Amino acid sequence: MSDQIEVFAVCPADAIERSGAMGFSLSQIDDSGESRPFPIIVVRTFGNDYFSYVNRCPHESVSSCLGRFAVG
Length: 72
Prior knowledge:
0% helix; single chain; mainly beta
């Protein structure tokens, strides 16, 4: 495992409302050189912190949501 952190700009910081989240579809190159979808969710907390998660249910191996949604 690498100790390096990868940083990607996916949208302007204020595009996600406080206490909100937005889904994005990135691309990831696999071992064969093919581009594969890499869905993520970026969450902005009320305290103005940002977290990102892979948009994949570990139980069903499908996206957990699509598009924009609010975090309760």
